[in-house]
Design a protein that fits this description.
single chain, 334 residues, alpha/beta, two-stranded antiparallel ribbon, 9 helices, 18 strands, elongated, F-box domain-containing protein, F-box_dom
Amino acid sequence: MGVKLLSLPRVVFAQVLREMQLFEVFELSQVSKNMYTRIKRVRRKLKPITVSHGYSRSEISATESPGCNFDLNFRFEQRMDSVVIRKLNIRDLKIEVSEKIETRKTFLCFEDQFLTVMIPLLKHLMDLFNMKYTTLLVNYDRISEDFFHPVFHKCVELNTFSLSGVPDQCLYRLMESKPMLKALNIGDLFEYRFKLPLTARTIPRILIEFAYSVCPVFVMNQEMITILHHDYEVESLNWLLKFWLSERNTKFQKLTLGCFWTPPNFDVLLKGVKYMEWDEKRRPRYYEYQETYFPIKIDCKDGFDLRRDDGVLATIAHDKERKMLHFIVWNQRQ
């Protein structure tokens, strides 16, 4: 099959490749150096490559379509009773594979190889396909010098976990080494202990797993903030709305708070605040934006609108499906 494909004209070869799954294309690239070179010239475009380094396993994954499912996975985990069934040629290295799961588009590899092959494998994928960007998910106490390599210079999303009790300096340094970050997800934010460096204040999107004070929302200058777990009272959120009405922040676009299993008491939330019910002539029903891998659409039909003195419109809305509360600022003056 490889020989027949290599004899195809360039345009036809590229069309055949585009109809193949990413997992199949990678397998095909292992056939020979000539095949690798032909595939490389097609420049098949991918979403940012995801690198995950956790306690139980590590993973390098790639996809070319929006969504949560990856089309090509290399999973590194402890496999005590496994044997090597094949070896993947990655530049000057060989990755030992214990199992190939085609239904999951995954190569199962041995955990002790991960840090050795991570950089060569990333370079290999970036060379084979059209993608120079990465996203990084790493347990905080597993950060090593490898994650400061230039291959991560174009990291657009950083996810860290288990911050409690660990010095912040390592995270600061990791963030400073990634000037193209567009999203930061951190495990928790204790205002009295952990302070975001100046670099973080230029990152458009921040997701916080746990936060115990409303104050960090205002000391950060992000476009979008998501806090999944929190201790916020409705009275604090009322103060948040009044704070936004009194300031002139032009960057802030959205605050999302999780754990709202039921709608908040809007009588308390909107106390002392002038608001309007939705009018389709004033603003759209849906608020849409793009995450790293997929688009998000929020229904704001049942939300309440607030207008600032400078004409900027915002909406506070409960998301029944996601069990979240959204505070959304529309891009233009309404």
